[in-house]
Amino acid sequence: MKRAALINDLSGVGRCSLSVALPIVSACGHECAVLPTALLSNHTGFEHYTFYDFTEHMRGYIDCWEELGISFDMVYSGFLGSGVQADITLNFIERLGKGAVRLVDPVLGDNGVLYDTCGDVTEHMRRLIRAADVITPNLTELCALCGEEYPESPISIAEIERMCSRLPTECIVVTGLERDTVLEIEHNRVANLICENGSITLTDNEKFPAAYCGTGDVFASVLCGGLTSGVKLTAAVRAAADFTQMCVQDTYNNGSYGKDKLYGVQFEDKLNLLKGCF
Ligand code: PXL
């Protein structure tokens, strides 16, 4: 069995980050170790939340795991509670992730808006992505990492390719692209653009008229499961996109969108589909 380190926050309510990554990566057949970055009552999309920054404890976890001789085949990082956590994650990779696949989901914002906890995280994230094999920004995060304005009107795929070429990571998966933001995408589709050593592949799925919190985490977690198993990037992206779409579709069909949006997607009854998927 492979061992994956999940570096992410634990939000008590609202399916996202560790409460999504832990079940999904486990269902893909991997042993998971959890390094929390912050503990929240609920994610930051709700009207109020409590936030406990876990930075000081992260170093202790790493020292302890190093003393115990624990090593990892995958290091997957997501939401960081402070800028310094990017350096702690880099330190984790150097000490415990030798030979590991390194997946960084640069969680910074969505729909052109940065999360209000981000503060100095963006500039530190630019350093962390240098050490990643694969990163999964949405368009908001891609713009933030490049230091560019979020576009006011739809842009071309060539423009996204240009932004990817400015980043230091070999494999970039730009997630959740739609016609609202990208000219070449059809109105009823949602696409991911894979930029692998400069060559581009697009995958797309049917789009539902609903956007749920935490879908980026569902996508990155399935991708993490596939990459930990050694599956090729494009195949892992397709599986991650299909699984995420299935969760959105079921949540949309079974619930009431306005009420459920913050609570995330129903993935629990689909975890069995991930068994043996990679
Ligand atoms: O799903 C991204 C995410 C992760 N963690 C926290 C968040 C969000 C998005 O709002 O608030 C705490």
* Domain module count: 1
C-alpha end-to-end distance? 13 Å
Order of helices and strands: EHEEHEHEEEHEHHEEEHHH
Q: Give the beta-strand count.
A: 11
- Uncertain segments: none
In which order are the strands of the major sheet placed?
3-2-1-4-5-8-9-10-11
CATH architecture: 3-Layer(aba) Sandwich
What does the largest sheet look like?
A: 9 strands, mixed
Bound molecules: 3-hydroxy-5-(hydroxymethyl)-2-methylisonicotinaldehyde
Shape: globular
How much is the average pLDDT?
A: 96
**Residue share in helix:** 25-40%
CATH top level assignment: Alpha Beta
Write the CATH fold name.
UDP-N-acetylmuramoyl-L-alanine:D-glutamate ligase
CATH superfamily: Ribokinase
How much of the sequence lies in strands comes to 15-25%
Question: Which structural class do the helices and strands define?
Answer: alpha/beta
What's the helix count?
A: 9
Plain-language structure description:
This protein has 278 residues and is of the alpha/beta class. It has a single domain (3-274), classed as Ribokinase (UDP-N-acetylmuramoyl-L-alanine:D-glutamate ligase), CATH 3.40.1190.20. Helices cover 37% and strands 21% of the residues. It has helices spanning 17-27, 55-67, 84-96, 121-128, 139-146, 157-165, 215-229, 233-254, 257-260, and strands at residues 3-11, 31-40, 51-53, 74-77, 101-104, 109-110, 113-114, 134-135, 171-177, 189-196, 199-206. Helix 3 (84-96) links the parallel strand 4 (74-77) and strand 5 (101-104). Helix 7 (215-229) runs antiparallel to helix 8 (233-254). The longest helix has 22 residues, at 233-254. It starts with a strand and ends in an 18-residue tail after the last helix. Residues 9, 11, 16-17, 40, 43-45, 79, 107, 115, 213-214, 216-217 line the site of 3-hydroxy-5-(hydroxymethyl)-2-methylisonicotinaldehyde.
